[in-house]
Structure formats: C-alpha cells, structure tokens
Amino acid sequence: MKYVFLALAVWGSIHPMAYFIQWFNANGYDLMAMVDAWHVNAATSGLVWDLTIAAVALTLWVIWEAVQKRDWLRLIAIPATFCIGVSCGLPLYLYLRMRRG
Fold first, then answer.
1. Which of 1, 22, 84, 88 falls between 20 and 30 A from 7, CA-CA?
2. What is the mean pLDDT of residues 65-87?
3. What sign does the CA torsion over 53, 24, 78, 94 have?
4. Helix intervals (H) in 1-101
5. Averaged over 41-52, what is the pLDDT?
6. Domain ranges in the chain?
7. DSSP code, position 63
8. Which residues contact 72 (CB under 8 A, 6 or more apart)?
C-alpha cells in the first residue's frame, strides 16, 4: 500500500503543477493574480477554503506525529502541502508514515 501512496504523491505533484504552470505561462508569474483567480466566484472560494482547512489539519497531524515518533523526515510533507498541494502532501505523508512498517 505504501507504494500506492507514493504513486499518488507523485501524481498529486505533477498533475496539479501542470495546470499551475499553464496558468502562469498564460497570465504571467504573478502569485497574487493567481490567488485572485482562485476567488473568482463562490464555488472556487469554497474549494480554496476547503483545501486550506485540510492543509492546516494535515499540518497539525504531521507535526504532532513527528514529535511523538521523533521522525523528523515526515515534516517534509508540510512544504509539499503548501508549495504543491494537499494532493501531494497527504499521500506523501501516508507513504512516509508507512515506510518503516
């Protein structure tokens, strides 16, 4: 199962990033313009908040378990979550969590 999570982490980094790069190429490399585009209507704002809350919950879980288990490698799931997305950070964390088992 851990390799399924690793594959999902790779997919979760490549697939969304392809859309981000496409958007940046079409609209310029302006992060604030992208944030504005995320809030173009109520549906997209809802998705942004849904993913933000999921990212915060995942971050708290990662930190708590990393401290409990003293497994600091798990913390790389946090920048993966906020720099790429929950679609990468969550399966990456699940892979890291299972790698010793």
1. 22
2. 96
3. positive
4. 2-27, 31-38, 42-69, 77-83, 86-98
5. 96
6. 2-98
7. H
8. 66
